[in-house]
Specification:
It is a single chain. The protein has 179 residues and is mostly helical. Helix content is 79%, strand content 2%. The protein has one domain (3-175). It has seven helices and two strands, in the order ααααααββα. A two-stranded antiparallel sheet has the order 1-2. Strand 1 (132-133) and strand 2 (136-137) form a beta hairpin. Helix 2 (31-49) packs across helix 5. The chain is globular and about 60 Å long. The chain starts with a helix and ends with a helix.
């Protein structure tokens, strides 16, 4: 398979993801959703060329998002979870047993969520009062809710990857003359 085809495909994936991250600063609703969709593009890169090609795309999109996107919280969510998770999910599910993989995913997400909280409050200027509900400080309750959302996201990502392999993968193989 031609290296130029791989570079072109990965470049297009990076461009699509970078545009989606840029749109988080333009479109005021669905910002985290746009960042999540930007991460979903990496499913195609992992499926077609493997994790070795997906990591540089992730790094390029992270850098471009940091430079071009106005809404830095969405970029941070992409960098910490939404961009790297489709790649990590493939690595974890291919190399570990199901129970161990499930625990590794949860540890990864919780570490990333805590780091996101710290970076948002310390560097991005998000007030800690934004983590208050009805006057009560509830970041741990929000983390618990985020874990539930993450599990739904993980399941949805599995379904999307399976759908990609069934419906889109054969067409991509034909178009790019891949083996």
């Amino acid at each position: 398979m031609s290296r130029s085809i791989k570079v072109a495909f990965c470049g297009m994936a990076a461009a699509i993801s970078a545009v989606l991250l840029f749109l988080t600063g333009v479109i005021p609703i669905g910002r985290t959703g746009l960042a999540a969709i930007a991460g979903l593009v990496l499913i195609a890169v992992v499926a077609e060329f493997g994790q070795a090609w997906a990591w540089p795309v992730y790094v390029a999109v992270s850098l471009l998002g940091g430079l071009l996107a106005a809404y830095k919280q969405a970029v941070l969510a992409y960098i910490l979870v939404l961009g790297c998770y489709p790649i990590l999910k493939a690595v974890i599910e291919n190399r570990t047993k199901k129970t161990v993989g499930f625990l590794l995913k949860l540890v990864f997400f919780n570490a990333a969520a805590v780091l996101d909280f710290l970076v948002c409050t310390a560097l991005l200027g998000v007030p800690k009062s934004s983590y208050h509900i009805f006057g009560m400080n509830v970041p741990w309750v929000l983390l618990l809710a985020a874990n539930f959302v993450f599990l739904v996201y993980d399941y949805a990502l599995s379904l999307l990857a399976a759908g990609y392999f069934q419906k889109i993968h054969p067409t991509v193989r034909k178009i790019f003359h891949l083996r």
